[in-house]
Design a protein that fits this description.
173 residues, 3 helices, 6-stranded mixed beta sheet, alpha/beta, Double Stranded RNA Binding Domain, two-stranded antiparallel ribbon, 8 strands
Amino acid sequence: MKKILIIILTFGITACAPIQVSYDFDKGTNFSKYKTYNYYSDMKTGLSELDTKRFLEALDAKLESLGITFSETPDFFIDIKSSTFQAVQRNTVGVGLGGGGRNMGGGISIGLPIGQSSANRQITIDFVDENLKQLFWQAVSESSYSPNRIPKEREEQLKAIADKILSQYPPKQ
């Protein structure tokens, strides 16, 4: 009974996958000179219009807490792209049969998937210096995604993604 409980808890914990973020930046960048930002006007986020609004509000709040303000004449522009995809199903149970004797043998095996495949969303944020025409910082986040979430849950998840993404800005060089 304890083994079954442990297996159920393990699957429950892995179903609530954390937000994973990877970062990249130009190591020659002086990040202290970037105090104002704006978004590209032709930005195609890949999010719904409401989710885009929620995500931009979360980014604005986090950037403001970092002392970076929105401006019509910014030091840098922000570009956001996202995509959704099905996570690879890795949990399977193997069932096998075998037999042998008198110099003959045989066997059969099948793998049965456990649970449902989950949808994930990848959000990429680029900070671009338009004066230098170059990307100077990038973050790519990956997290679970459910299109059926209620608006409050969507807002909380997008805020958590924005917080996690900007937790490493400016980077420690």
